[in-house]
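Take one record.
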Amino acid sequence: MDEPWDFEFLSRVVEGFVSFLSEFVDDWMANDMRVAVFKILFSWLILSLIAIHFAWKVYGNTVNDMYYRQGTGGQNGGTPDTAPHLSGWESASGDALKSHRE
């Protein structure tokens, strides 16, 4: 069996995380071009996520209703047996409607 996690392993993980954070803070405080690009891209990511969140709050129900169509039968509301947009001469042509088996 595997050995249980010991204190040494956890202390190494914590030490590595702390060193990463301290290095990240040092780079963040530097006036370097790559830090400036990172700040711009990170700000764009956060702004995009906030915009998506608010857009979903506003339009989420509409998108959900479009996906889950209301209708008779079938999974997710399904589709009706005849299309409501067909005119009278298209549906009354005398031809029997083809079924899935044909």
Observations:
- The radius of gyration is 30 Å.
- The mean pLDDT is 75.
- The helical segments are 7-29, 33-67, 88-91.
- The CA atoms of residues 56 and 88 lie 40 Å apart.
